[in-house]
């Protein structure tokens, strides 16, 4: 089992920035690809970004390219999502995920999920 705990969400004005963190425990963190997803009210959960076990592969959904950056620190068992130039369409609950396979994460079917952290962007 992998346990995931997100933090760093909150209320921010449009154009602002937030950094989300996801702390992992339970298994060897560096064996897992990590991902970020989000779910806005009334919408399905959608893929945001993924990073491979060693950071060598990174993938973003088109709507966040150039604004969001995913990174990981294997020594701290933590994955991050730096979010810049936020707008109201970024308002959602953000979820962290873990899976052994990078492309399984990109295809929105990772095995492990966190509980989520709320991000609200005010206009």
Could you characterize what this model shows?
With 123 residues, the chain is mostly beta strands. The chain has 1 helix and 11 strands. The protein has one helix spanning 102-106; strands at residues 3-7, 10-13, 18-25, 33-39, 46-51, 58-60, 68-73, 78-83, 92-99, 112-113, 117-122. The strands form 2 sheets. Strands 2, 4, 5, 6, 9, 10 and 11 form a 7-stranded mixed β-sheet that branches. It has a 4-stranded antiparallel β-sheet with strand order 1-3-8-7, with no helix packed on it. β5 and β6 (58-60) form a beta hairpin. The mean pLDDT is 96.
Biggest sheet features: 7 strands, mixed
Annotation field: number of helices: 1
C-alpha Rg, in Å? Answer: 13 Å
How much helicity do the residues have?
Answer: under 10%
Number of strands: 11
Amino-to-carboxy terminus distance: 39 Å
Quickly give the structural class: mainly beta
Strand proportion:
over 45%
> What is the global morphology?
globular
User: Can you write the helix and strand succession as a string?
Assistant: EEEEEEEEEHEE
- Give start-end ranges of low-pLDDT stretches: none
Rounded mean pLDDT is: 96
